[in-house]
Amino acid sequence: MLKIINFRKVIKKTLDSKFILLYFLCVVVYLLSIFGTDLNLQLLLKSLPALSLLIFYFVVKESNKDLRIIVSLLLLVTINVGLSIVNEFLIRVFLGTIVNLIVLWIILGHIKNDNRKLIIPIATLSLVIFFLVFSFIFDEHKMNLEFVAIGIHGFVLILLLAVSYTNYIKDISMLNFLIFLGVGFRLFSDGITGIVFTDDTATVYLAIAALFFQVSRFLVFYGLIKKDINE
């Protein structure tokens, strides 16, 4: 007997493959630009992967799209396109933190109320470690607005890691694992960036950090998009 081909499933798999290829082609182009001298071009090219995620979401999700995912991706595109015109570090950190808060909100919605109490001990331990490391790295820096902005950004990111981990252990699935792994990669990326940020000769390390950042973005939003489609 001949098997009946599920054409819709085949098309979805083909779309996924093409999107993944498109996304990482955009990432490669952006990474190559890091070794150049045009910062504005880097920021514009950095927006392409987020734009491809947004297009992918509109293609695969025909109706009932999650406005939070759309706003998050639009912010990611805006951060880089806007900063190619006005390069302001604090604005970048602020908008990036807003994106992380929205992602945190989405993931919290996937965790059952009975399981949310587990977040507290995990988040507390994670935040203690964060503040110890953060104070060690920045102990020689004066308390200023940038210091506070980075601290808040790191605080939210640690909370996001704790929540995504709770989401995974309470509902073990590949998509939840991808989201948790993606948040972990983002933390690793920010760690590298924070250490070598003031070193103009550390282009290779910044490229590695950028690679982990883009892989993180892919894993988190691909996971969120696929979960939204499956609901």
Uncertain segments of ≥5 residues (pLDDT<50)? 1-8
Q: What is the N-to-C succession of helices and strands?
A: HHHHHHHH
Instruction: Please state roughly what percent of the residues sit in beta strands, choosing from under 5%, 5-15%, 15-25%, 25-35%, 35-45% or over 45%.
Output: under 5%
Helix proportion range = over 70%
Number of strands: 0
Mean pLDDT: 80
Quickly give the structural class: mainly alpha
Distance from first to last alpha carbon: 33 Å
Measured on Cα atoms, how large is the radius of gyration? 19 Å
Describe the largest sheet.
Answer: none
| Approximate shape | globular
The helix tally amounts to 8
List the helices and strands and how they pair.
Layout: H1 7-34, H2 39-60, H3 67-83, H4 89-110, H5 119-137, H6 145-170, H7 174-196, H8 203-230
